[in-house]
Every structure is written in structure tokens, then in C-alpha cells.
Write a structure and sequence with these properties.
With about 375 residues, the chain is mostly beta strands. It contains two helices and 28 strands. The chain has two domains: about 150 residues, no CATH class; about 150 residues, Neuraminidase (6 Propeller), CATH 2.120.10. The strands form six sheets. Strands 1, 13, 14, 15, 16 and 17 form a six-stranded mixed β-sheet that branches.
Length: about 375
């Protein structure tokens, strides 16, 4: 028979255990359903002019990809992969972020960590940062500029089911573990694929390879807010998430559906859904003014992955880039991420699209040119 002291201790231990269980899995949380509008198919509307001065006329017979103003050539003498990273290149399944103020580009490579490119993409090195970055897969990321400080980077690791926050020294990372509650009952249900800053104090994370929820988190201190949006009713794979400063909305890339969904996260309202050509499995979007690039694993009829350039104001596709078919990037079968990269001003301004491909993995660069139709 238990003594009063033993019974009191047992009751206390049971209460603590129950409280821990509830705090991990059964605490109240807010779920926002993902009823979205029917997708509006985007048409191809070729533009004769763009947001910058037309580049000098292309000389020679270089292969070109794209239409109208938005034509690109392959650039193969930039973005060298560091020798120590070459054994891991085939497994590339990561992300690109650009620090345009410092002319630096960062690429996340599985089992390596962050690779830096500098000097107008001529130089590269493996960044010896926090060990957290080199043990999983830096799948999707975002960069936030700060006045008088180095930028912050938030990145989702789909392999280790975690999210990391650091500045661009990448030396001391903060870790955000799985949500530990809400619709999640174990860590293996959570495989985040992307994250985006909506302000210096708040980020949004999309769980593309897990239960498919999108969720907000505070950045300081780094913690979940306790609300979850969507699930599989949003998309079977909500792969990418991008903040659109112009109207303070989020663009969510629904990969298998080939759709870009715009969400007003303040009022929890769906504003519109844009449809890419059938069969285009979109991974993410990257913004430059009124224009977005949308890299895809596959194109229509399982064609090698294209990169679409979209005029977001007009809601039309203005060019389709085909790195493998048109430009000789032989391993660019599936485009996993892409980013705008610009250098110079006025007559000396150059515009690039950088991309990373998966299965097999690789990294490539394309440059905007003025070429005849």
C-alpha cells in the first residue's frame, strides 16, 4: 500500500507527465483552412521591352533561350563549384539567396552547407560555419537586409526537420525544432521546405514534404506562434513560400498542382491563384520588382524543367527559359531553385538568372542579352 507521501508524489508525477504531453501535442491551436480561388491560367505574352535598358546586341552565334526582351545565354565561366564540394554535387537539392548590396550569392548544398560566390560570381568557397548547416539539407531560404548589420538568413532543412536562423557569417545558428504540437504529433511528420521573412520580427515556414501546413514564427526569440494554415487541402506539396513586399502578401508555390497561390496572411484571405502551363511542377518564385521567376522540376509532358518569367502586374508569362533544351546545361533536367542576380547600373547593368538543378544536381548561370527573334 502506498503511503500518503508516495501517493502525493505519484499524483504530482502524473500531473507533470500529463502537462508535458498536453504541451507537446494537445494545446489549443488555430487552424486556418485553405479554400482558394480557381486558378487563372497565365498566357504567354511576349514583351518587347523590360524594366531595364536593353542590353548591347549579342554578337556571334551563341545559343539563346527565351522570347522577346527576355532572352538569355548560358554563362559557363562563372559560379565555379569548390573542389571540396564536387563529390556532393550530384545530390544537390537546395536553395539560392542573393545579397545584392554586397555582391554575394549563397548556395545551400546537402551535406556541405553554405557555398559562397563573390567577385561577380567568379570566386567561390565553402563557408566553414555552424555545424548545423553541414549535416542535413539547406532546402529553401530567405535573406533579410538590416541597416548597419549583416543580413539575416532563415533556412529550412527538410532532412533534419528543423529551421535555422543566422547572419551571413553563418557561424552561430539558432535552431527552431519541429512545432511540437498543433496538428503534429511527432517530428517525422514535419519536413519544412522553405521559409520567408515578412518582417524583421516574423517568418513564415512551409512544410512542403510533411503535413503541408504553413505556419508563422517569431524571429526573436525564435518560436512558433501556434497557428497553422492549410494542410493537404492547400497543396499536396506547398514547396516554396515568398513574401511580396508590394502588397504585403505571401506567394505559395503549389508544386504538383503547378499553381502560385497568393495569401493575405494578415486577414487570412486567399486573393488569387495563378496557373502555370499544365504539367509544370513549380518549386518556388523569386521576385525582382514586378517580375518573378518560377523554376520547375518538370515542364509540360515531363519536359526538362523550365524557368518561367512572369509579369506579376499583368499576370502573364513573358518568357520561358529552357536551360537543358536550349542552352546545353545537360544535367539541368529538374530545376529546383532560381534567383535573380543583377550587377552594375545604367549601360553597364547586367541581369542574370542563377539556378540549381536536382537529380542530377548542379548550378548554372544565364545572362540577359539582346538577340534577334
Amino acid at each position: 500500500m502506498n503511503t500518503p507521501t508516495q501517493r502525493k508524489y505519484s499524483l504530482f508525477a502524473f500531473s507533470i507527465g500529463l502537462a508535458l504531453q498536453l504541451s507537446a501535442h494537445e494545446v489549443p491551436y488555430t487552424r486556418y483552412h485553405a479554400g482558394t480561388n480557381s486558378a487563372t491560367p497565365m498566357k504567354l505574352v511576349v514583351e518587347k521591352a523590360g524594366p531595364v535598358r536593353t542590353p548591347p546586341r549579342l554578337e556571334g552565334s551563341s545559343a539563346v533561350s527565351g522570347q522577346g526582351f527576355w532572352k538569355f545565354i548560358a554563362v559557363t565561366n562563372l559560379c565555379p563549384v569548390p573542389e571540396e564540394a564536387l563529390p556532393h554535387l550530384k545530390g544537390a537539392h537546395g536553395t539560392i539567396v542573393v545579397d545584392e548590396e554586397r555582391d554575394l550569392v549563397y548556395w545551400g548544398l546537402a551535406d556541405v552547407g553554405w557555398i559562397g560566390f563573390s567577385n561577380h560570381l567568379k570566386n567561390s568557397w565553402v563557408i566553414k560555419g555552424d555545424p548545423l548547416f553541414s549535416k542535413g539539407n539547406l532546402h529553401g531560404a530567405d535573406l533579410l537586409h538590416r541597416k548597419g548589420k549583416l543580413p539575416l538568413v532563415v533556412v529550412a532543412d527538410n532532412v533534419k526537420s528543423e529551421v535555422y536562423l543566422s547572419d551571413t557569417t553563418f557561424q552561430h545558428a539558432e535552431k527552431l525544432d519541429w512545432p511540437g504540437g498543433g496538428p503534429y504529433t511527432k517530428k517525422d511528420e514535419f519536413h519544412p521546405t522553405d521559409a520567408a521573412f515578412v518582417s524583421p520580427k516574423e517568418i513564415y515556414i512551409t512544410d512542403g514534404y510533411g503535413k503541408a501546413y504553413v505556419m508563422p514564427a517569431d524571429s526573436d526569440p525564435l518560436r512558433y506562434q501556434g497557428s497553422f494554415m492549410g494542410g493537404k487541402e492547400l497543396s499536396q506539396t506547398p514547396h516554396g513560400i515568398t513574401y511580396q513586399p508590394a502588397d504585403k502578401t505571401l506567394l505559395i508555390s503549389a508544386r504538383p498542382e503547378g499553381e502560385i497561390k497568393k495569401w493575405d496572411f494578415h486577414d487570412h484571405k486567399w486573393l488569387e491563384t495563378l496557373g502555370l502551363p499544365g504539367g509544370s511542377t513549380v518549386c518556388d518564385v523569386d521576385l525582382w520588382g514586378d517580375y518573378a521567376i518560377a523554376p520547375c522540376l518538370d515542364g509540360p509532358n515531363k519536359a526538362p524543367g523550365p524557368i518561367y518569367i512572369i509579369n506579376l502586374k499583368k499576370r502573364v508569362i513573358v518568357s520561358t527559359l529552357r536551360p537543358k533544351q536550349d542552352l546545353g546545361f545537360t544535367e539541368a533536367q529538374h530545376i529546383h531553385d532560381a534567383a535573380w542576380y543583377t550587377v552594375g547600373k545604367g549601360k553597364k547593368q547586367e541581369v542574370y538568372v542563377l539556378f540549381t538543378n536536382w537529380n542530377p544536381g548542379g548550378f548554372g548561370a544565364m545572362k540577359l542579352v539582346n538577340a534577334p527573334d
